[in-house]
Amino acid sequence: MTQTSQTLVNRNISVIDPASGQLHRTSIRLEAIEWEALRDICARDNLSINEFCCRVDMDERRREHSRTSRIRSAILDHYLNNSRQLDS
Fold this sequence. Notes:
By secondary structure, the chain is an alpha+beta fold. It has a single domain, classed as Arc Repressor Mutant (Orthogonal Bundle), CATH 1.10.1220. About 50% of the residues lie in helices and about 20% in strands. It has helices at about 30-45, 50-60, 65-85, and strands spanning about 10-15, 25-30. A two-stranded antiparallel sheet has the order 1-2. Strand 1 and strand 2 (about 25-30) form a beta hairpin. The mean pLDDT is about 85. Pfam families: RHH_4.
């Protein structure tokens, strides 16, 4: 059986626990290109990755099922919105 190479990269982040309000560590798995995009967004917006992820995680407008899905969607939203602004 041929094993495919893993393209997902697992990293730890700190997010705020909604029940306690305290920071706790958790892991998310994103594609390498998603991590690169996340670092780019954070550098441009002068945010840490943890700050970005906390904001996304607590955003009541986000309806995605999992934290990782919310983060992926927020990355995509960022680039789509910036692209639309440039097209205007």
